Amino acid sequence: MAGPRLARQVGLVAAGRAGLALSTFAGSAILAWTWTPAEMGSYLAVWRLVNTLIPFFLLGFPTSFLYFFPRLKAPGQQTLVLQASGCLAAAGLLLAMLVRWGGPYLNFLLDSETQPLAQELEVYLGAFLPYTCFWVAGGLVEPGLVAAGRPQWQALMSLGMAVGQLGLVLSAWGGDWSVAQVLWGFSVLGGVRLGAGAWLVAKAVGWTGARWSSSGLGEYLRYSLPVALGDVVGSLSRAVDRLVVLWFFSNETFAFYDLGAVEVPVSVLLASATTVLIPQVSGLYAAGRTEAIAELWSEAIRRLSLVVLPLFSLLFFQAGPFIAVLLPEQYGHSAWVMRIFLLALPLRCAIYNPLLVGMGKARWAWWVGVGDLVFNLGLSLLLTQLLLTGWPAWAFLGPALAAVFSTYVQVVFLVGLIAWHLRWGVSQLLPWGHLGRVALVSALAGGVSWGLVQLVDPPLARLVLGAGIFAGVLLLGAQPQDREIFRKLFKSR
C-alpha cells in the first residue's frame, strides 16, 4: 500500500537528516568547550552567514526538481539532472567568488573590542569558500536520490556526513584546532559529499544515452524562480534574529544566543516529509483530487504531532538542565533563548509552503514569506530597542520573541490559503481533537516531570530522571490508535 511505503520513505529521509542535524548541533556544543565565547561567536557568525546565503544560489532547483522529475520519462529525467547539476555548479562558483569579494565589507560580524582584526574574518571566509561552492553544486544530491526511489542511499550518505562532522570536531577538541582549521575541515567534507552524491545520483538515474539538451530548461527555470524567491525570503526570515543580535550585541552574546536557538531535529522530519510528499501532491493536484491532498495532509499532521508535541513539552520543561549538561557554565542564558524558540515548535506539526508549491502555487507562498520577513525584521528591531531602554540585561531576547510571534502570524495566513485552495474548511483540514488530546497529555507529562525533579542534582541526573518520568506519564496517557501508528511506521516495507 502507498501509505506504509510513503511513511517508510519519510522515515528514511528523516533518519539521514536528523543524524546530520544532531551532529551539527553536537559539534557546536563540543566546540563551545574548546574555544572562548569570542572565538565561538566568530565561528558561528561565519557558519550562519554562509548557510543563509546558500539558499539564494540553490535557485529553487531542489524543490522544483521534485515537481518535474515524476512527470518525465527516463531520458527526460536524465536530461533534467544534467541541466540542474550544471546550473548549480555554476551558481556554487559564483557564490564562492562573491563571498571572497565581499569579505572585507562584513566587518559588522566582528566585535571590535573582543575579536580579531578584519583580516582574520577574511581568513575564516577563505577557509569556508570551498564548502560554500561544494554545497551549492551538490544541491541536487538529496532530491535526486529521493525522486529516483533511493531514499535509503540518501539516508546513508547523510549519516556518513554526520559521522564525518563529529570526527572533525572531536579532532579539533583533542588537537586544539583553530577556527580556520575547523572551517577547512568542513570544506573537505563538503567536497566528499559532492563527489559521493554525484556518483550515487548517476547510478540511481542511469546515464545510458544521456545527452545535454536545453529542451525544457526554460520551463524549469520559470517554475524555479518563484520557488527560489520563496527560499531566499525564508532563509532571510530565519536569519533576521541572528543578524539583529550580531548588529546590536557582542560576539559572545551571539554565541550563547545562537547555541540557545536550538534547531530541534523535528524540523528535519518536516523537511523529509516535504521531500517525499511534494511529488505526491503534484500528481494528485494535476488529477484534480483535492480531497485526497487534504486527507494526506491531515494524516501527516496526525503522525507528526505524535513526535512534535511530546518533544516540545519535554524540552520546554527540561531546558535548564539540558543546557547545563550540554554547554559550559557561561552559556547559562542560552536556556532562555531555547525556551522562547521552542514556543514555535508546535507549529511544526504540519508543512505549509511546500504544500502550496506542490499544488503549483509557489507565488502565494512567496508573498506570505515576504510579509513574514518584513514583519519579523520590524518587530525584532522594535523589541530590541524597547528592551535596551527598559531591561537592557534581557534585550538579547527581543529578536527571539519577534521571530516566534511572526511565525505564528505567518502560519495563520498559510493555513487559510491552503484551506481556500483545497476548498476545505479549517475545521475539516486540521484534526483539532487529536491535536488537543496529544497536547494535553504532553503538557501533563512535562509538568509532572518538571515538578518531581526540582530537588535533584546534578543537572545530568535531573535531566535523565525528568525524561524517564515524562516518558512514563506519556505512555500511560497514550491512546491505542497512537501506538498503532507507531507500529505501522516500524513495520512498513
How would you describe this structure in keywords?
single chain, 493 residues, mainly alpha, globular
Question: Could you characterize the architecture of this molecule?
Answer:
The chain is an all-alpha fold and 493 residues long. It has helices at residues 2-32, 37-57, 61-68, 74-102, 118-137, 141-147, 151-175, 179-205, 217-248, 251-260, 266-286, 290-317, 319-326, 334-342, 353-358, 362-390, 398-422, 426-429, 432-452, 459-477, 480-491. Helix 5 (118-137) runs parallel beside helix 8. Mean pLDDT is 82; it is low at 112-117.
Quick gist of this model?
By secondary structure, the chain is mainly alpha-helical. It is built from 21 helices and no strands.
Mean pLDDT: 82
Number of strands: 0
- Tell me about the largest β-sheet: none
Number of helices: 21
The SS-based structural class is mainly alpha
Q: Which residues form runs of ≥5 with pLDDT under 50?
A: 112-117
List the topology elements.
Blueprint: H1 2-32, H2 37-57, H3 61-68, H4 74-102, H5 118-137, H6 141-147, H7 151-175, H8 179-205, H9 217-248, H10 251-260, H11 266-286, H12 290-317, H13 319-326, H14 334-342, H15 353-358, H16 362-390, H17 398-422, H18 426-429, H19 432-452, H20 459-477, H21 480-491
